[in-house]
Amino acid sequence: MMADFTLAACAEMIFTELPMSERVRRIDDLGFQVEIWDWTRHDIDSLRSTEARFSSMTGYVTGDLIDPEGAEELLATAAQSIPVAAELGVPRLNLHGTGLDGRGLPIKPVEVITGDMWLKAEDTLVRIAELGQREGVIFCLENLNTAVDHPGTPFAKATDTLALVAAVDDPHLRLMLDIYHAQIGEGNLVELIKKCAPYIGEIQVADVPGRCEPGTGEINYSRIAQALHDIGYQGTVGMEAWASGDSELALERFREAFTFARWQSRDEQRVP
Fold first, then answer.
1. What is this structure's pTM?
2. 106 by DSSP, 3-state: which?
3. Is residue 108 one of the residues assigned to a domain?
């Protein structure tokens, strides 16, 4: 029998009535690893003092994948992020096609991705993977949706992030496969999981619409858990979602959706 997934929760989105260090403690006390976004917005000493286990954080501060100047900026701030990740024990550093502002909007919105942009993005990600290899960390390129949350973000779709990560094909560059964003932007989630399987570094989840915990929307998260089981995924599943009500209850709903005892493979369910 396969063990349950490692579960994490985004401290930026739950227990929002509490200071950040208290959010982190609550999440850790409930048995989840912790995700944070932009580390420059936080007191790192305070977060370290919680002794919480961190799953991921944003792995750059500014920059993008689409032009030479932005690429150099992304690489430089990724290098600055690595000592912070080491201080907190964060194994995965998250990337996007371009930096996002406080509302989640791209700093450099793009309507059409050109061939030169694709080549620059691939070249930059090769260098990111080399940085990850030197420093012993994994960078993860996240898919986003452009219809609701992040209009104008380049390389946003999971098909885009998969193409780039597969082209680089380095274990220090993986996918942060976000099921919420993929449902809005692409759908066909089970087949998407199968296609992405060799390159997944971490899974992120929230339900659609509303971006709240699993069970509040249209995504069949039992089937998603089954699909991850079927491809042999044994990594981290992170809830990057708002709580629809009580944060602790939202985390329990998330745990139930991804606890193995609540679902089994189709072969195990068959009656002889």
1. 0.94
2. strand
3. yes
